[in-house]
Amino acid sequence: IIACVGGGSNAIGIFHAFRDDENIDLIGVEAGGLGTNTDKHASRFSDPNLSRPGVLHGTKSFVMQNEDGQVMETHSISAGLDYPSVGPEHAYLRSLERAFYTAATDEEALAAFRLLSETEGIIPALESSHAVAEVIKRAPSMPKDSVILVNLSGRGDKDLNTVIDVLGDDL
């Protein structure tokens, strides 16, 4: 199961039904922005120097914060993933090693957006495009009889202006 993770509701919604089946991998994909080696991303689980336990909006979870504990600005091409914290359910699943988290960059999400749109006629939301990007990375190394369930949440038509602004004539 692969789903995008901003605050985490999309992923937790689909993970819930499968959380007790340890034969199924639960993979959350965060916003890698311009790269997790920069400070322009929203990947709470990628860098313990930027993201550690903290409280935001009354919830204790992983929060991107500076050395003084101040909440950091994040970056993602996707507004829905551009958030400095993650739901505590995801922090819990990660601590149990029941769910695993990775990141897709803006560039990877845009490539996934384009591929799904062109090959299947499905215009995914930029949020979900991050999950599709992870499928594109993993699928080639998986056995041919593997089943991948990717959660597509929302419609991509809301994101067309953003995609056109970034890709321009390359769209």
Descriptive notes:
This protein has a single domain, classed as Rossmann fold, CATH 3.40.50.1100. Helix content is 30%, strand content 18%. The chain has 5 helices and 5 strands, in the order E-H-E-E-E-H-E-H-H-H. The protein has helices at 9-15, 88-95, 106-120, 126-138, 160-167; strands at 2-4, 26-33, 51-56, 59-64, 99-105. A 3-stranded parallel sheet has the order 1-2-5, with helices on both faces. Strand 3 and strand 4 (59-64) form a beta hairpin. The chain is globular, with a radius of gyration of 16 Å.
Give a brief rundown of this model.
The chain has 171 residues and is α/β, with parallel strands linked by helices. 30% of the residues lie in helices and 18% in strands. A hairpin with a 2-residue loop joins β3 and β4.
